[in-house]
Design a protein that fits this description.
The complex is a heterodimer of chains A (about 475) and B (about 270).
Chain A lengths: L23 H8 L4 H16 L15 H4 L12 H6 L14 H8 L6 E6 L2 E7 L1 H5 L3 E4 H7 L1 H7 L11 H9 L2 E7 L9 E7 L5 E10 L4 E10 L6 E11 L4 E9 L4 E11 L4 E8 L4 E10 L5 E10 L4 E10 L5 E10 L4 E10 L6 E11 L5 E10 L4 E11 L2 H8 L5 H18 L6 H15 L1
Parallel strand pairs in A: 1-5, 4-6, 5-7, 6-8, 7-9, 8-10, 9-11, 10-12, 11-13, 12-14, 13-15, 14-16, 15-17, 16-18, 17-19
Antiparallel strand pairs in A: 1-2, 3-4
Helix pairs in contact in A: 1-2, 2-9, 10-11, 11-12
Chain B lengths: L6 E10 L5 E10 L4 E5 L6 H9 L4 E10 L2 E2 L5 H7 L1 E4 L11 H11 L9 H14 L17 H15 L3 E5 L7 H17 L4 E5 L3 H6 L4 E6 L2 E6 L2 H9 L2 H20 L1
Parallel strand pairs in B: 3-8, 3-9, 6-7, 7-8
Antiparallel strand pairs in B: 1-2, 1-4, 4-5, 9-10
Classes of the chains: A alpha/beta (about 475), B alpha/beta (about 270).
The structure holds adenosine-5'-triphosphate and magnesium ion (MG).
Chain lengths: ~475, ~270
Amino acid sequence: MSDTSTIDQPIGGLMEGITDAFNASAVEAVSGGEPAWLANRRTEAWSAYERTPLPTTRLEEWRYTNLRKLLKLDRLGFDGVSLDAAVATGSDAEPFDLAGAPEALRAAMEADHAASGHVVEIDGRIVHVDLDPELASQGVVLTSLRRAVADHPDALDRHLATDALPASRGKFQALNAALWTDGVFLHVPKGVRLELPVRVTRYLTKPGTAFFNRTLILADAASQVSFVDEGLSADFAEQTLFSSAVEVIANDGAQVQYVSLQRMGRGVFHLQQQRTLAGRDSTLDTLNVALGASVARTDLNARLLGPGANSDMLGLCFGEQGQHFDHNTSQDHVAPHAKSDLLYKGALDGNARSVFRGIIKVHKNAQQTDAYQTNRNLLLSEHARADSLPNLEIEADDVKCSHGATVGQLDQEHLFYLMSRGLSRDRAERLVVLGFLGEVLSRLPLGGVVEKVTRIIEERLQHG
Amino acid sequence: MSDTPILSIRDLTAKVADEDVDILKGVDLDLFKGEIHAIMGPNGSGKSTLAKVLAGHPGYEVTGGTVTFHGDDISELEPDERSQAGIFLAFQYPVEIPGVSIANFLRTALQARLEEGEELDLFDFQDELMARMEMLEMDPSFAERPVNDGFSGGEKKRNEILQLAMLRPSLALMDETDSGLDIDALQVVSRGINRLHEENPDMTVLIITHYQRLLNFIKPDKVHVMLNGRIVRSGGADVALELEEGGYEDYRTAEAEAIAEAEAEAQEA
Ligand SMILES: Nc1ncnc2c1ncn2[C@@H]1O[C@H](COP(=O)(O)OP(=O)(O)OP(=O)(O)O)[C@@H](O)[C@H]1O
Ligand SMILES: [Mg+2]
């Protein structure tokens, strides 16, 4: 498997995805007022986008997600406000009025436990940032990407869409790098530890539109931070694209947890690209919870770059009628003595469908690698479908690797056992499904997340 | 003891849902309030099938006969309705349910027994759970462990008794609760059952076992022998002792003779 951009495609594939909304002048518009390094980076990303054909189902990585059918690029609008305009309208300077926020956004934020800081993003723009002043005085930076361009240009020039998610990684990585409108920048200096998570809540209001955000998390040596990234929206009649690019860099000995909580409404096409770079002796764990959207595609590439690095990669999805999930993961062992352990689980009702494709790649020098990958799926209806494609590519000889995948139905013996204790069939089913998915959450018991996700799934099971 | 049995089984026949041959071939059994009965019988004779049919397992189909519980026909009831009505089955092979903790599961089970709108008192629940676990010499940490997940054979059986203690049924069907237990665990478990029976002398207990040794700890009022889907002998505690001595051979011979006789009769007719 290789990056699609490195494959030279025939002429027929060129210029795909260029529309009234996505084109060179849109790039120009968003980059207005930006420093040259950034404007150039956008332009380069845009030409990578132009050069790269839209992935087809002939590519292994897109085999079960047919973009030609599922993604209506030419119907999407885009309003890329330039940095000038964003700063002129105040952006994150104005205090955010939670009371006046949409109900779902307010409920999501109120349900959260304490945090080290909050970020609120509405329609691709950061409207609020707060950070514990004590942490700010220790040098922690939590800010909108727009502000960071002005305030932390060196860090951004060095890390934004370079080490982790450069435009060269694929068509949509390129599109996001060209058109992002805002996002989050978090920098935790050496040795600083955040006891409470940073909570980001993103909300969309405009149907038929494309939104592009980026997140850059830099954890310096021996620092510690957890980051909960929640996305919500109403249901939309028109397709709405929500593209998120997440770059997480954990330096030596850092401990980082990144949690994505995807609760987008129907009509949303969620494209999420994540890349994590784990340095020597660092811990870099991820949890992807996919509950919403009509189509949700997540690419997670975890690179273990330093000896002793450790990544737990957890994921769960719960799908109902009309939902399509596609998880594409790779555990990329570059350094020796590193460990990665992946567990993705999905429960699917109605005609929901999920695809899991995971590869463990162990490079030649990555001796003494421990890499595990498990994908389990539970089909709650005869119309649901799960495809699981685990893969190994091992070039080192002294490694411990395993992978396994299962697709099964609710076990009637489990239900009978619970019912024989007086639980109704519905309750018994709910308990089994929650237990099945809960195993994932219990591996990353971050304050509030387990409760929130459990409650959401419980509610959906009740109404389903 | 009242005159009407709390559980009355008449000529019960049952088979595996998608197969043809009956496993239970005409079971008759009456259990009166507060009695302790034991069923013994060789492997494959249908003991677990009887227990599961009584608990309403959907994998079996009743093909004939009746089961009345507290005077009501329960053949149409779902497993949860039977549980609510007071039937409890301690499984021979308790299943592992990943991610569902014992505490959560029992809380849900007890909540399900309450009227609409009534809320389980969580403090009382917690206190009782802890007390019962202590009685069964279970480590308190078990409460938060997923049901039977990674439990040893003995731990699974204690967990069944724990559920029995918490759910307080009027009829407890104990399917080989003693198998797989070492002598210490056997004592803990049987003390537990005796204690629950003392607390609630109205509780009727049906013990399925292969071993006389359990019946040294729990004294049955009646012992039945099951063979090939039927109860072929019923008597006092001495029946178990007879079995200990002579095994099932005599019953098998008697049954074979009976079958031959029946066939001969059928041919004559
Ligand atoms: N679900 C099933 N599918 C197929 N056959 C079954 C099923 N359940 C029971 N049987 C068969 O019915 C017969 C009785 O089984 P059952 O489990 O009731 O015996 P048992 O008396 O409990 O035996 P043991 O002492 O070994 O526990 C056996 O021949 C068994 O194979
Ligand atoms: Mg049995």
